[in-house]
């Protein structure tokens, strides 16, 4: 029988949020005061004073833990790091920019209790993001439907609740390219969603640049499915069959004297067609081989620089 544990663990990946972090932690302390909870701050190589603010929060509040990473590894890597330090029955991941109101955490908890879900995603009536990020999110959600078996109507938001038992499956991943939603759907399909408010960003600009969105797209496309290889295999088989049929057609047409077929036309057509097909295959295979090389190279998903944690809570339910 498991020992008594706290209700909630709040994981906050921190990046350049020195102005919003202290108000966010203070507001969490107020709106969640009715439950036993902890806050896990993971500083993902911020370039401002976020690390100093995190340390101050860990000193000020007994239920705040702080882990500082040596450089910027990315949001999913920081979240994965934080998930290794939680002990609550429910783990909620929330951003550091106040776009998700802390009070909405209780909405996620109520939905999990009522529906018995392993994971509860937030959804928004209207998202307060830039247009290119909204477009990127729609593309990634459509891609995830085909690659990881996500229900088509489910929106994969960063603000979500995960049961402790599912988190224990997620943190088994040790590679350098974690995709939290992909790891969730490898562990469970018992997933729900609930609508919550989404507010404009209070300070600064989104850290999701076009470059990061493209990197995330490639990570999801190649790192969590062999579906692209299967598509190109079918395309290659189709083009090969088409080439055979066209070749027979040219041969028959030439023999019957229907029209004159110049040899260099055929050679040029075959060279361009096969060269393009080969380049597509080589490009896709190189992406897979590159991922495999990086995963086998022993690169960790994150490197911890500082820790201010309660040692008794780490892995206390394992």
- CATH class of the largest domain, please? Alpha Beta
Fourth CATH level, the homologous superfamily of the largest domain: Spore Coat Polysaccharide Biosynthesis Protein SpsA, Chain A
Q: What value does the Rg take, in angstroms? A: 25 Å
Give the strand content. 5-15%
Summarize model confidence as the mean pLDDT.
Answer: 81
Structure classification: alpha/beta
Main sheet characteristics: 8 strands, mixed
Tell me the CATH architecture of the largest domain.
Answer: Alpha-Beta Complex
Give the number of DSSP strands.
8
Query: Which bin fits the share of residues in helices?
Result: 40-55%
The low-confidence runs, each spanning 5 or more residues with pLDDT under 50, are 312-318
Order of neighbouring strands in the sheet with most strands: 7-5-6-4-1-2-3-8
Shape: elongated
CATH fold title of the largest domain: Spore Coat Polysaccharide Biosynthesis Protein SpsA, Chain A
Whole-number count of domains: 2
Give me the strand/helix succession: EHEHEHEHEHEHHEHHHE
- How many helical elements? 10
Give the N-to-C terminal Cα separation. Answer: 12 Å
Protein name: Glycosyltransferase family 2 protein
Pfam families: Glycos_transf_2
Domain Glycosyltransferase 2-like: 9-170
Transmembrane segments: 234-258, 264-285
Can you summarize this structure?
The protein is of the alpha/beta class and 318 residues long.
Indicate the topology:
Elements: E1 8-14, H1 21-31, E2 37-43, H2 50-60, E3 64-69, H3 75-83, E4 90-93, H4 104-115, E5 119-123, H5 131-147, E6 160-163, H6 164-170, H7 180-187, E7 191-195, H8 210-223, H9 227-256, H10 263-296, E8 304-308
Helix pairs in contact: 5-8, 6-7, 9-10
Keywords: Cell membrane, Glycosyltransferase, Lipopolysaccharide biosynthesis, Membrane, Transferase, Transmembrane, Transmembrane helix
Protein name: Glycosyltransferase family 2 protein
Transmembrane segments: 234-258, 264-285
């Amino acid at each position: 029988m498991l020992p008594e544990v706290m209700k909630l663990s709040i994981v906050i990946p921190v990046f350049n949020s020195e102005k919003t972090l202290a108000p966010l932690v203070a507001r969490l302390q107020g709106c969640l005061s009715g439950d036993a909870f902890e806050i896990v701050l993971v500083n993902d190589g911020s370039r401002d004073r976020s690390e100093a603010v995190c340390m101050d929060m860990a000193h000020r509040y007994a239920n705040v833990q702080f882990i500082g990473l040596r450089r910027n590894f990315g949001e999913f890597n920081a979240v994965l790091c934080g998930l290794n330090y939680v002990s609550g029955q429910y783990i909620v991941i929330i951003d550091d920019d106040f776009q998700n109101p802390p009070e909405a955490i209780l909405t996620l908890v109520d939905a999990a209790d009522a529906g018995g879900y392993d994971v509860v995603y937030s959804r928004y009536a209207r998202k307060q993001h830039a247009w290119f990020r909204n477009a990127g999110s729609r593309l990634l959600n459509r891609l995830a439907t085909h690659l990881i078996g996500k229900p088509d109507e489910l929106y994969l938001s960063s603000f979500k609740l995960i049961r402790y038992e599912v988190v224990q499956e997620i943190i088994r991943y040790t590679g350098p390219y974690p995709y939290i939603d992909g790891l969730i759907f490898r562990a469970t399909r018992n997933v729900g969603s609930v609508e919550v408010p989404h507010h404009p960003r209070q300070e600064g600009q989104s850290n999701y640049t076009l470059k990061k969105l493209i990197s995330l797209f490639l990570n999801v496309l190649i790192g969590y499915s062999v579906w692209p290889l299967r598509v190109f295999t079918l395309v290659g088989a189709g083009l090969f069959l088409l080439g055979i049929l066209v070749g027979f057609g040219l041969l028959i047409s030439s023999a019957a004297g229907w029209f004159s077929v110049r040899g260099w036309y055929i050679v040029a057509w075959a060279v361009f067609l096969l060269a393009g097909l080969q380049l597509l295959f080589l490009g896709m295979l190189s992406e897979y081989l590159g991922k495999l090389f990086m995963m086998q190279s022993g690169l960790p998903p994150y490197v911890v620089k500082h820790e201010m944690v309660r040692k008794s809570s780490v892995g206390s339910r394992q």
